[in-house]
Amino acid sequence: LTQKNSGLKNISAIATLLMGLCCDVVIFRNQKVDLISTISLCRHQLRTFRSSLLFFLFSSIALSLQQIFSLFFLRPNIFSLPQTFLFTVVYVPVIALSLMTSTHKQGDNRDEIAPKNVPSAPKRLIRRAVIYFSINFLPSLLFVSFIYCSILLVYLCVLSTSFVYFRHNCWTKLPFRNSCWMTAVFFVIFVQVY
What we know:
Layout: H1 2-19, H2 35-72, H3 81-98, H4 123-136, H5 138-164, H6 179-193
Helix pairs in contact: 2-3, 2-5, 5-6
């Protein structure tokens, strides 16, 4: 009878572990649990999952907008195809998954009121997410695109110095003597900056 009882306990433990595959918290049958600390731990895990998901979503939107901006403004793509693949498949998911590993201190969020089950996100939450994305991600996209194009333009201007007098060395015939080229370079850089 005791062997049969221990077999049932093993089967029950295996069933508990199988049912707990989809979550981080597993409570066994005869285990004493502090309900308040368990709720606090679950809230912490939900908060880290939510922040990880939002970071992944915002980063994916930012990468997509970066490609759209470069197409819309007729600028070269910042990322090559392998770099785009690495960002979308490796870099952003690894960073997003690492956000879920933040440690939980006992009593961190006990005074937090739990929201009720709401079938859709409230408008205030959507508005806050749009504002957060617009403040944190959008300016950096525009700045990176502008800096990338500015650096590319300066690099092209520097390369063009060797084409001013194509058959001569730069130190024998200075390219700065060509006033038309100098005016064009300053004009292009001025247009890019402003």
